[in-house]
Amino acid sequence: MSIKDIVNRDLVTLTNCDQEPIHIPGKIQPHGFLMGLTNNWTIDYCTDNISIFIDISHAQALGNKFETIFGTAAQEQIFNYIHSDTAQDVFPLEIVLLDKRFQVTIHKSDDIYVLEAEIQFDKQILADVYTQTIQFVAQMNSTKSLKDLCALVAAGTREITGYDRVMIYRFDEQYNGEVYAESCRKDLEPFLGLHYPHTDIPVQARELYIKNELRLIVDINYQAVPIYTVDDKADKNLDLSLSILRSTSPIHVQYLKNMGVGATLTISLIHHGRLWGLIACHHYSQKNISPAVRLAAKLQGQFITSQIDIRESNDENSNAKSSVEALENLMALDLPLIEDSLKTIVKMPELLKLCNSVGVSIVFRNKIYKNGLTPVDDQIKGFIEQIESKNYGEFFITRKIKDHFPELENCSDFAGVIYHSLGNSNHIIWFRAETISEINWAGDPEKSIVKDEKGLHPRNSFNIWKQIVKGQSSIWRQYEINSAAKFAHALQKNLMMILLSEEEERYRLQSEVLRETNSELENINWISTHDLQEPLRKIQMITSKLLSEKKSDPQHPDLNPLERVSNSASRMRELLQDILKYTRIKNTREAAEIVDLNEIYAAVVDEISESILEKNAVIECEKLPEVNAIGFLMRQLFLNIIQNSLKYAAAERTPVIRITASQEPVIVKHLSNKYCNWVRFSDNGIGFEQQYSDSIFKVFTRLHTQQHYSGSGIGLALCKKIMQSLGGAIYAEGVEGEGACITIYFPCDPADTLI
C-alpha cells in the first residue's frame, strides 16, 4: 500500500495572499494527533506524530479498520458518541486508546469523520472554571453599556484562561478592527483603542472564524505535523475548517511572532450571522488550556453576542429618547394649512434634535426654507439636481458626500446628509458638518503585508501610526434615520394638505363667483322674461291692429313687413319662454318621487293632439315603467321630444313615433355597469348625421335653418338638463334621411350620478 502526505506547498504571493487556502493546510499543530475515518471505519488519514502519543506509527494505522488497531470497545464508544444527543462541539469524548487516556473531538468533513485527540487534562480544573463563571455572570448584571460588558468579559476571560493579554476586538463595516476592551498584565503596553486594518484578517480567515468559533495556537514556534493518507486518488485532501488542531498560515504565524506573542486563543463573536468581533487572547510564552477552560472562554463570547442588541440599545437609549421626544413635539404641532407654516416648522429646534443634525432645509415650490448650519441655496439646489440625475430615489443618506458626488467635494459646509423626497419637486434635507477625527493604527495600515529581499512577510512594526480623517461626518444612528423618515412622511402629508386646502380655497372663491354670476344671470333672466315681454306684447298688439286694418287691401305695401314684424315678435316671446324654462331647472333630485310615465305620456298626447292630427302622425307606445322623477319635468321632457319628432318629420312619409321601454332595471355597460330603467323614442323623420349626436343637446344649437324649421334650439338642451338634474342621462342616435332615436336613462338608486 502506498501512502503520501497532503501538505499544501503552494507559494503565497502578494497577488494571492488574500486567497491562501488556509482551510486545507495538510498539517496540524503537534499538541495532539489526528485521524480521518471513512464511513466503513477505515483509517484514511493519520498524522505523522501519532507514534508520540501511542505505540503505533501512521503507516501502521493507514488503510486498516479502526477496531483492528484500537479494539471493538473503543469503536463502539466512538459510534455511540457520534450518534448521541451530546453537544459534540462542547463536550469532548473521554476515551482510552491503547492504554492512554485522551480527550477526543469529532467532526465530519465531507464524508470523513475527523478525530482529534489530546492528552486528557486534570478534571480539577473544571470545578475552578465553574466557580469563576458563576461569579462572572453575577457581575455581568451590574453592567449597563456594551463597553462596560466587554471590559468585564476581557477581565473575566483573562482570569479564567490565564493569558497575559485579552482583547475584545470589534469590526467596523469594512472589517477594520478596533481594540474595544482590554485586560493585560500591568507591565505590558496597552493596545486599547488601537485600530487594525481589514487586511490583518483576510476574507478567508473571517469565513473560517464564522465556521469555527474557537481557534487555539499552543506554541507559536511549533513545527507543523504533516497529515498522511492512502495514495488511492489524485489531489486528495482534507478540509480542516472545523479542526481544533489545524495548522496556521505561515504569514499569520510570522505576524504573531513580530508582535512577540508565544500562544493565542481566539473566540469568534458572531452577531446576526456576521463576524462582529473577536476575543483575542495573547500569551508571551507557550500555553495550552483544557477543553473545559476553552468552553468557559467560549461562553464569555456568547455572553457578549447575546447582549449586543440590548447593550447597544441601552447605550443609545438616552439619545434615542431625546429624538423621540423631539419627533412627538413636532407631530403635535397644530399649525394652519398654509405655506407660511413652513417658516414656523423649520425654525423649531426639535427639527434638528430629532436626528442630531446641525442644519435642515425644506424645499417647497422651489422656495428654500432653512435653519442652522446649511449650505447656500445654490449648493442645496445643486445637490438636489445631482440626487435626481443619479436616480437615488426618494431617500438618500451618507456621512461622506464626496464618495457619491465628487463634484461637491469642495462644498465644505456639509459632509453628511439625510435626504427625503416629498413628491412634486419638494424635499427635506438634514445636514451634518465635517468631523475631523484621529485614528491610532497599530502600524501603517497600508503595509500589513510587506515584500523585501527576504520574501513575503507581515509588517514587523506595531508602533502607533496616526491617521487624520477628513471629509466625513459622524455616523447617522438608526434611531436618527427612523425619526427623520417618520417626520418626512408626516411633512409630505402636511404639504399635500396645504395644497389641497389652497385648491379648496380656489374652488370656494370660484363657487362664490359662479353663485354671483348665476344670480346676475337670474336677474337678467327676470328682466328678459318680464320686462322684455311687455314691449313685445305692445309690438304684437300694434302690429295686430295695423294688420287688421290693412287686410282689407291685400296689395297694400305695408302688409308683408307688418306680418314679418308680428312673426318675429312671436318667435322672440317663444325664445324668452324657453330660456325661462331652461334656467329654472336646478338640482331638483331631492324633490324626486315615484312617477308613472304612462300617465305622463297620456297627458302629453292629449295636450298636443291637434298637432298630431295636423301631421297625421302615428304614435305607438308600449307600457312604460314607474321612475324616480319629478312630474312636471317629465311632462316637459316628453313634450319636447315628441314635438321635436313631429317638427322634423319627413315630408314624403307618414310620421311614425315609437316609444319603447325596459320593463325591469337592466345593466347599462356604457354607464359604468349601473342598473337603470330606460325609455326610447324612435321616429322615421329626417334624422341627422351621428357626428352631431352630442351637439344637438347644446343650447341654441340648430342643424337646420330657421326658414325651414322654426324653434329656439333650446328644446333638446332642456331635455338634457332635466335628465342631469335627476341624475340620469340622455343619448341620441341618428341616420340622415331615415330617422332619429333618443334614449333616456333613469338610475334605480336616486343617489347615483350617471354623467
Automatic annotation (TrEMBL):
Residues 145-302 form the Phytochrome chromophore attachment site domain. GO terms for molecular function: kinase activity. Keywords: Chromophore, Kinase, Phosphoprotein, Photoreceptor protein, Receptor, Sensory transduction, Transferase. Its EC number is 2.7.13.3. Gene3D superfamilies: 1.10.287.130, 3.30.450.270, 3.30.450.40, Histidine kinase-like ATPase, C-terminal domain (3.30.565.10), PAS domain (3.30.450.20). PROSITE patterns: HIS_KIN, PHYTOCHROME_2. The lineage of its organism: Bacteria, Pseudomonadati, Bacteroidota, Flavobacteriia, Flavobacteriales. The keyword RNA-binding does not apply. In the N-terminal section; belongs to the phytochrome family. This is histidine kinase. It catalyses: ATP + protein L-histidine = ADP + protein N-phospho-L-histidine. Residues 527-750 form the Histidine kinase domain. CDD domains: HisKA.
